[in-house]
Give the backbone structure.
Amino acid sequence: MSARELALALALACALAGTHPASADDTAKRKATPDKFAKAAGEAFRDAVAADKAGDLRTALGLYQKAYGISPHPSTVYNIADVQRRLLLYADALKSYETYLALLPSADDRKDIEAILDALSKMPGTLHLVTAGASDPNAVDWKAAYVLVDGELKLRPGSAPQPQKEYGGQSGFAIQVPAGAYVVDVVTPITHGHTTCKVEVGGRAACRITAKPRVDGRLVVNASERDLSVRLDPKRSPITGSRLELPAGRHKLLVRDRSYECPAIAVDLPPGGDVQYVFVSTSELEFDRCRSLDVKQQRLRFTP
Amino acid sequence: MVAAIAAIAAVAEAAPSTAPAPAPPARRKPPPEGFPAEAIGPFVEAILADKAGNLKVAERRYEDANKVSDQASTHYNIADVQRRMEHWLEAIKSYRKYLELAPGAPDRAEVERLIAQIEARPGTAVIDGEEPDALVFVDGKLLGPSPVVLQVSDGYHAADRITPTGHAHRRFEVKPAHSDHLKLSISREEPGNVVLSGNLASSGSWRDNGNQYKLPGRMALPPGPHATYLVTPRRACTPLAFTAPQPDELVYVFVEAGAPARPGGCLPIKVQQTKVRFPP
């Protein structure tokens, strides 16, 4: 057992034992019997340390969680976080480290933990973009597709999909991104599909995307969140998340952020078979007004 | 191509437009010693949501934690989230709750100072609407294309939102630390070459020299100089005089009425007119 583990185990044992300093009054001075919960938690904690030392991290995690469930203690949740980190369960580790700091606000190692939290929160995740099997009429033809993630162009037509081992060998693409929710658009000369996928810190997520066999139009519009809506006419339904046919030339897109009007976006739609792609997002806090918008526009060229 | 569109933040009293300031930093407090285990879960979820920028979720989770165990530090954190979302009145209430639950808080003076600062903030108004290509005027001044975010002094103000084919007007009151959303949508198309507006609490329409006037309102008037009275004869000390442009142009006429010299006396008025040009 390392010095830290020993210290934690001792601290836990004392804390869980429920002992109190003798008081100065004249009542009986018996030591409190460790209650059944403290005893059970202590046993689970010791077994967890043993499993951890033996390299059985899954068992160690379960036992630490058992100890914590019986009697919550900062040392236990610290060890839970530590095991989760080593099991690459980064999102869980983040929560456990935060719980440790919440339980022990004056922790000596607060700065160290905050550094770990900072590093963990920056761990990129992996989105595995996959589509339906060839038997599905809505399967995406990757070779003809532009793939955009939150408005950023990630793949151009001609990119060769790779088997995604983690997802049954389905063919697709793996893309590293910071943790968060992402809008993925696939645009081919003849169709458009989109979906929203979420990936946790250091995690993997399958992002299954399909598209109807045919969706016409030279304009594709999408947004990072439902609160942002784009319209052509204030009295008509939003066009966010769609591809639509409009005459080539300049158009004005009306944007709303919840119930707030935002500045309009000017778009120039190309003649021929090219597509103008517009993506609206915001990283601003939830102020009671139209937040600052980032508008990304891409000209997707399909004309030979 | 990446174009950043900043929400317009026009600041009243003729200050220049500014882009939104960077978000102020979080100032969180940890839970107290002995915080119940059942409250730790939502408290930690609040911190994680806050760090991820989901402040509304953070606020809800802190409130969940308070349902289990009402704590001064949690109210402080709720106030901090509300402050950063610029929900000033809620933030004041939450900071006060913090002080109520922690009367001996070591940062009491600092929190009281913060409350005083927030209470002294000028009120904010968001002026927008549905129709595209609108311009916003407040108290007779053109602030820019809709939407406009405005910080204004306390008291009553007049807002006009004008589109190529319509006009909407609202008199509104601003109180310190308050935020209002004035949705000035145009109920019906109202073309015309003159928009009449003003700071008067009352409105009215009148016929004079064969022309129909309306305050506030948009109307088609013969091009050339006009001199009429203000709703009723002798209400204003001087004529309401302005020049109407050609039918395909538009002028915005704002009537600023002062207090009468004696009770029941005529209103001294200042008339200013602005040619309206819509952005292409």
